[in-house]
UniProtKB/TrEMBL annotation:
Family: Belongs to the eukaryotic ribosomal protein eL24 family.
Biased composition (Basic and acidic residues): 183-197
Keywords: Ribosome biogenesis
Any one Gene Ontology BP term: ribosomal large subunit biogenesis
Xref: SUPFAM superfamilies: Glucocorticoid receptor-like (DNA-binding domain)
Record-level GO cellular component terms: nucleolus
Superkingdom as given in the UniProt entry: Eukaryota
Name listed for the protein in its UniProt record: TRASH domain-containing protein
Keyword Lyase appears in the UniProt entry: no
Pfam families to which the protein is assigned, alphabetical: Ribosomal_L24e
InterPro entries according to UniProt: L24e/L24_sf (IPR038630), Ribosomal_eL24 (IPR056366), Ribosomal_eL24-rel_N (IPR000988), TRASH_dom (IPR011017)
Length: 197
């Protein structure tokens, strides 16, 4: 059983799956799904599509040069069946898979070390920007707080001048103390008018 690779995305194409396209020059292209076949027909290069293995390898996101890949090469000559050879091959395939996963994880860790530094720098920049904006907000809140205090002082000084005691109110809604003051001032005016005559 031979497991082919998709020409576009690089995924495994198992027997009985996918599609095969044969060009006029007798070159065969295997595709794992219709998405890959359509992108090939649109003449899009797999190296520039973010979801393909070719893109990941060319942009340093996966291992590109490794000796383990030599085991995956196709061999056109089929050897004669030998039980010991099949057992050795299966054991070697398991070992190759273990080595491959170990190397992939090591490569991923190395990539992520650089990413951690980049993320830390971005976080520091964001904190600096936030602290700058927080300082600006503090200044603006301090300014608004001083304005509020000034308004409160103005209100309290007006209250102290008037000194309206809580008492029974008239039907007009004016407290009785204010009405008394008006009567007093009216009375003084009347007295002043009388004195002038």
């Amino acid at each position: 059983m031979r497991i082919e690779k998709c020409f576009v995305c690089g995924a495994n194409v198992y027997p009985g799956h996918g599609s095969l396209y044969v060009r006029n020059d007798a070159k065969m292209f295997r595709f794992c799904r219709s998405k890959c076949r359509k992108t090939f027909q649109r003449k899009r290069h797999p190296r520039y599509l973010r979801w393909t293995q070719a893109y990941r390898k060319t942009h340093g996101k996966e291992l590109a040069n490794d000796l383990v890949f030599d085991f995956e090469q196709q061999r056109s000559r089929v050897p004669k069946y030998d039980r010991e050879l099949v057992g050795q091959t299966l054991a070697a395939m398991k070992r190759v898979e273990e080595v491959q996963t170990a190397r992939r994880t090591a490569f991923y860790r190395e990539r992520m070390k650089v990413r951690k530094h980049v993320e830390q720098r971005q976080a520091e920049r964001e904190l600096a920007q936030q602290s700058m904006s927080a300082n600006i907000e503090l200044v603006t809140t301090a300014a608004t707080a001083t304005e509020r205090q000034a308004e409160r002082l103005a209100r309290s000084s007006v209250r102290q001048r008037v000194r309206v005691p809580a008492g029974p109110s008239d039907t007009s809604g004016i407290p009785a103390a204010i009405e008394d003051e008006e009567c007093r001032t009216n009375g003084k005016r009347e007295k002043m008018d009388v004195a002038e005559e």
